[in-house]
Amino acid sequence: MDAFCGIDWAEDHHDIALVDRDGGLLARQRINDDAAGLARLPELLAGHGDSAEDPVPVAIETPRGLLTACLRATGRPVCPVNPMAVARYRDRHSAAGRKSGHGDAVVLANILRTDRHAHRPLPADSELAQAIAVLFPGIGALTGARVLAEIGDDRSRFTDTRGLKAYASAAPVTRASGKTRSVTRRHVKNNRLAQAGYIWAFSAITASPGARDHYDRRRDAGDRHAAAQRNLFSRLLGCLHHCLVTGQHYDEATAFPAKAATPAAA
Question: Please, which residues bridge with residue 79 across strands?
Fold first, then answer.
């Protein structure tokens, strides 16, 4: 690969930059967020060696939207980079703190050039899953569709439940230094999945006796409401991952087995 593309996304336009292996600027352009602009992007990439056999990889700050969907439809690797990470990379190259669309596009392109191995491309979800992600933001009661849209249907994306729970901020972060140890919630996460998880867990408390019992046990153990609900979401995600991997249907008794009665209770 001889070219790397970075795109600074905005509501009505997008700044594009292409750099070569040495970091030299090959091209820069601003396109509108319309059909003509989206058609211009493949033409720009093709003019710098892009092909179906060797597509130019693209770095962008958002994993969703029509622009990202169009890029994924071409089969090219699209690497979403957290805006906080982009800011850290920007500070490495400029002490002035200046920020511009073109400058961020160059930074994104150079991130792929130097650290592509550290940024996972978007999974190879089916067109149906990608369409849900583009068309159903804030769908309220259809929480299942939102969860599917954010998780996707590429089963190789999460090899175990730990990765999925971390992605959804359902798994805590442990920080240890010397004699100090703290357990906190994750701040870097998929916000849409985390929000859907809050609704999912809240609904499960009223609809599932097992989920309600799990929540009550966490509260009795000292968890606050948010922590207990997040723990329940983690449990539900584990169940979902197991069902997707094994092809089994959800079963309440398996997900939340009844606790054996104690001698005193008997």
Answer: 59
Q: What pLDDT digit, counting tens, does each position of 91-124 carry?
A: 776 666 667 788 889 999 999 998 888 888 887 7
Query: pTM higher than 0.90, yes or no?
Result: no
Final residue in a domain of this structure, among 89, 118, 147? 118
Residues β-bridged to residue 4: 19
Domain range enclosing 222: 127-255
Q: Do the domain assignments include residue 102?
A: yes
C-alpha span between 216 and 1 (Å, rounded): 55
Are 149 and 133 within 8 A, CB to CB?
Answer: yes
Last residue of a domain, one of 118, 137, 171: 118
> Residue 114, CB half-sphere, CA atoms under 13 Å: how many?
11
Exposure on the CB side of residue 7, measured as CA atoms within 13 A: 28
For 117-214, list the strands marked E by DSSP.
173-177, 180-184
